[in-house]
Write a structure and sequence with these properties.
By secondary structure, the chain is α+β, with helices and mostly antiparallel strands. The chain has four helices and 18 strands. The strands form four sheets. Strands 1-2-3-5-4 form a five-stranded mixed barrel. Pfam families: CvfB_1st (PF21191), CvfB_2nd (PF21543), S1_2 (PF13509), WHD_CvfB (PF17783).
Amino acid sequence: MNNQIGTIQKLEVLRKIDTGYVLEDDILLHHNETDSELEAEQSVDVFLYQDKKGQTVATTQLPTVQIDTYGWAKVVEVLPHLGVFVNIGTTKEILVSKDDLPLFEDVWPAVGDELYVTLGKDQKGRLLALPATEGVFERVFESASNDLLNTTISGRIYRTDREGAVCITEESYRGFIHHTERKKEPRLGELVEGRVIEVKPDGTLNVSLRPLKQHSMGEDADAILARLEESGGVIPFSDKSDPEDIRDTFNISKAAFKRALGKLMKERKIEQRDGKTYLIAK
């Protein structure tokens, strides 16, 4: 029955014992794993998993996810040396191995985030939760229409890297968030809200997590002022600085940086000299 680990099976009750019930193939269904009184020869639907001793046991609390079946699972614990544990709707929380998570822990899921997973097994036969690949999501995507342009959408991040992040929206649209369209890299499993900036011919979306220019200018200006105050009133940046240097430091585009500098100069809060920006003393 070990090959049925991670699946829902209909098994017959053989007998009742002090700790619960013995099912066919000598599988234990503990009293804590069922809220019903069962009788011998009764058939019951159970989910099979391994306990800490490596024995196959059962629960009548059926999960939303099993082997070869995908579903959303909420992150309940993060352990940097192992990975994250998710709740699949049963008593046993399942590990998503760090090998199946991003390389950098700052974009790992946090408690409360959700991952779209199925179940698999490690080399010792223990259950693991496996995040869905792009190919799996491609089977569930819907095609977006042009009337979504400039609307606000919510989506769950399922892939993230230096180039950008990808989310699936609540309507099952695919949304790509380029690294220039975010203040910080979102976490895997994070629910984000953004603005549709392009509906592509294939029905997928390009999404921005940044506010509109007229709103972001003030935020960017505040960030520049904060950096000036932290740096003794001078930073080695100007409107002639390299775009990559600006992005690496402020995580905004050169165009956004220039707009914010222009706002601050108009307000006579800063000045530029010799490729540097200075805070004007009050």
